[in-house]
Amino acid sequence: MADANLPEHVARNRAYWDGLAHDYVDSGSLNWESEEPTWGIFSLPESEVGLLPKELDGRDAIELGCGTGYVSAWLARRGARPVGIDNSEAQLATARRYQQEFGLDFPLLHGNAEQVPYPDESFDIAISEYGASIWCDPYLWIPEAARLLRPGGELVFLVNSILSILCGLGRIPPPPRQDDRPPPRQRLHRRAADRSPPTRRRDHPLQTHQPRLGPPLPLRGSLARPQALRLSPGGRRRSGSSRPRRR
After folding, report:
1. Which of 167, 186, 208, 220 is buried most deeply by CB count within 10 Å?
2. pTM
C-alpha cells in the first residue's frame, strides 16, 4: 500500500520507525545469535516464562510487527514456518541482512499488520512482541489476527505495562546539542528558577510545579514480575509470572 493511502497513524509510525531503525541493528544481531528466546525489558528466558506454544514443529506462524525478525528466527529454529510483516522497510532491510548472515529464510512483508495480505485461516500462531500489539489500533489488529488464525490457533503478544511507562522505564531523550543550549545568562536564570520552592494554588489541591525526575527506581515484590499472557480464539487463557534475572 502506498504511503499516501495509509491511515494517518500507520504513516506516522512508518516514518518514525524508518528513522529509528539504525538504533536496533545491534540488539537485533544479539537476539538473532541467541538460541533461547528472551522476553521483555528484563530479558526473561523462555524456559522461565513459557510464552511460546510447546508444539511449534510444522506450524504456520505470522509475526505481526516483526522489526528485525528475531522472533520469527526463534520460531523457525523450532520448526515453525514463520512469516514476518512490518511497517518499516528499514527494519526489514536489517532482517533480510540477518537472514543471509544466519542462514534462515522465511517471507518478510512490508505492510500494515491491521491489513495482512493473506486469506482467512492461514496460520496456527500469530505473535507480536512489542509490534502490532502496541503500535496498531487494537480494534483492528486483534480481529485481523483472529481472521488469520485457524480454528484452535493461538494469539501470543507482549506489551509494555502501564506501570513500567509511569516509572520511566522507556527511552530517555538525548541531551540537547551544544548549539541548542541557551546562553549562559539564561541558563543561570533557569537554575535559579529551579531552586525556587514549590507553590500551591489556594483554590486547587494539586501542586502547580512538576518535580524533577531522577533515574527510575528498581521495582520490588509482585509488581516487578512481568506477566506472560497467551490467548486463543476459543477463549483459553494462560498466564504466568517470573522474577527478573540479575543482569
Report:
1. 167
2. 0.69
| Structural domain of 68 | 3-163+224-241
C-alpha cell at 45: 528466558
Neighbours of 125 (CB within 10 A): 26
**Radius of gyration from C-alpha coordinates of the chain:** 22
The DSSP line for 83-147 is: EEEES-HHHHHHHHHHHHHHT----EEES-TTS-SS-TT-EEEEEEESSHHHHS-HHHHHHHHHH
Residue recorded with cell 511507562: 165
What is the distance between the alpha carbons of residues 81 and 20, in angstroms, rounded to a whole number?
28
The pLDDT profile of the chain, 247 residues, written as one tens digit per residue, is: 557 788 999 999 999 999 999 999 999 999 999 999 999 888 999 999 999 999 999 999 999 999 999 999 999 999 999 999 999 999 999 999 999 999 999 999 999 999 999 999 999 999 999 999 999 999 999 999 999 999 999 999 999 887 876 776 545 444 445 455 445 444 434 444 444 444 433 343 333 333 333 444 343 333 333 444 455 555 444 434 333 333 3
**Does residue 186 belong to any structural domain of this protein?**
no
